[in-house]
Amino acid sequence: MIVTIIGTGLIGGSLAITLKERGFATKVIGVDLVQENLHKALRRKIIDEAASLAEAIVVSELIILAIPVDAMLKVLPQVMDLVDQQIVMDVGSTKVAILQQIAHHPKRAQFVATHPMAGTEYSGPESALPDLFDHKCAVICEVEKSSTKAHRLIKQLYQSLQMRLIYLTAAAHDMHTAYISHISHISSFALALTVLEKEDEEERILELASGGFSSTVRLAKSNPKMWIPIFEQNRENVLEVLDEYLKNLQQFRDLLANKDFGNLAQLIRKANDIQKILK
Asked: Is 210 helix (H, G, I), strand (E, B) or coil?
């Protein structure tokens, strides 16, 4: 199995490492507009060779797009125009806009829309990890519009990564990721800004920061080049979740301002119910 990965950053690089380690891919070709990324991926032996888009597609059986979702809107149709019998998949964090872009493409059945729910706050080939996907969840959207052959291959790919599969519509995917991923990043960005604005002594932050603070603001290190396009494409869902989040923050503030610690404790106990979901 020769696999081309377009985008050799965290997700693309981690896929390249793991697919070869698990025996799914015998050879991985890297395609990236950033030449330094390709050089790093080659030096780390994440990819076996670098090539242009057209050169890589011709010799590959599977093409994986692991690029920011704004670039996906432009590059995916180009890839679909170039493929013959090859299967194409993406790993984007939004789905509605991407699937609309190729909804009427004559080779639509050769494409499988996916989103492996895994990642870190870091980016670039140097951040690639071999165990990033282990026992995590992967979403496949609009599977009924993909051919049986394409679906079977991508299912085998995710099984080799030891990931659990969930099937959703594109709209359901974008709504759910707004709740469990996109709002988490906004919260982290906002908390980091709040602390930085109020705490002038950077060294003091580092001295006092414990595991709780570090884990809460970890996502604030994420690359805006990836996250601004996600917020743009999933704007309506993110706004809905953000409104709900702000309402809850206001409730906490009001109870604290009114010294209503009984109801504040009740609110926290209600929040504790999340442990029934996240075990």
From this structure: coil
